[in-house]
Amino acid sequence: QRDMFQDIFAGRVSKERGAIELKEIDALFDGGKPKFDRIAIVACGTSLHAAMVGRYVIESLTKIPVAVDYASEFRYRDPILDSRTLIVPISQSGETADTLAAEKLAKERGCTVMAICNVLGSSITRAADTTIYTYAGPEIGVASTKAFTAQLVALVLFALDISRRTGSLGAEQIKSMVEEMLKLPRFVADVLEQSDHIKDIAEMIAGAENVLFIGRRHNFPVALEGALKLKEISYVHSEGFAAGELKHGPIALIDSGVPVVAIIPKDESYEKMLSNVEEVKARGAFTIAIASEGDEAINFTVNEVIRIPAASEFIIPILASIPLQLIAYFAADHKGTDVDQPRNLAKSVTVE
Ligand code: M6R
After folding, report:
1. 291, 316 Cβ separation under 8 angstroms
2. Which helix (H) or strand (E) holds 238?
3. Who lines ligand 1 at CB under 6 A?
4. Which residues contact 62 (CB under 8 A, 6 or more apart)?
5. Number of helices (H), then strands (E), in the chain
6. 348 Cα nearest atom in ligand 1
7. 258-288, pLDDT tens digit by residue?
8. Which residues, at least 6 apart from 264, have a Cβ–Cβ distance to it below 8 Å?
């Protein structure tokens, strides 16, 4: 993953000027005016989780409303669509049947389609008006890993370029965000250095019956993704929750030793996340924090800490995803399940 960023940034981000331009989206604008009033993202599985993170990023940077749908449900709820809706199917493979069907429905209703996709010339890109390619390189294992982080990067670049064109962010703000994006290879390398520690933690939880992942805001979908990854390749039952929802039901699952992985960077949700972690700890949970470098206080609250670099909130989901992917990988490897080809799953789901 550390090495894919230069391909994603190539021709889009200028290191020297800290500038950004996605030529792929030129046709979606008339000068500084977008030709759309709202964005509707459709995707499945891991790509849906990327979409959910994208909603937070795009809305907060551009102030354009974003809806996110399971592609598998989209065509069955008679969605309200018009020519001012930009439809964004997100897909690693570009062949997912439900995502393609959602895209086709949107085209029939007169929407413009901008795909985010990893596979050049795939069906979803051929049906789209334009595509932001994620350039993560071929992904062989069934579990989407680098394709997911590449989708997150593509969504941030998309949001930043809308902001540049519409003026929703100033040039200096964009420059500093671009400069931070350019640090991603180093940030990711810092996370990967903890692989041995993450392996130890994964082996501790590999035998659990249930594992819970919690997060708030941008990191709520990351919690969903951490749970999907773990269950998909290790067959350990795992669920992700918005931390604020715990008390509405899921906290009943907490018992002595139940692992809870909390994504708790130092951001504006920190205090609320901390009290959620304390609530589960008080009920006996084995707590693992994905926490910011420099947050020493967290050591006194949780059982185990995995560090991610202190970074802006739009970058944190990219960094927080990597230890979760490693937890899934090491837990599966420890159990001896097939990490690349889990049972009952196909890399691209070309049937409904
Ligand atoms: O190729 P796509 O991104 O459209 O695939 C969507 C899902 O099938 C896919 O993300 C699936 O959830 C992965 N196996 C998750 O790792």
Report:
1. no
2. strand 237-242
3. 44-47, 91-93, 96, 99, 142-144, 228, 232, 345, 348-349
4. 159, 162, 163, 166, 168
5. 12, 14
6. 1
7. 999 999 999 999 999 999 999 999 999 999 9
8. 215, 270, 273, 274, 277, 289, 290, 291, 298
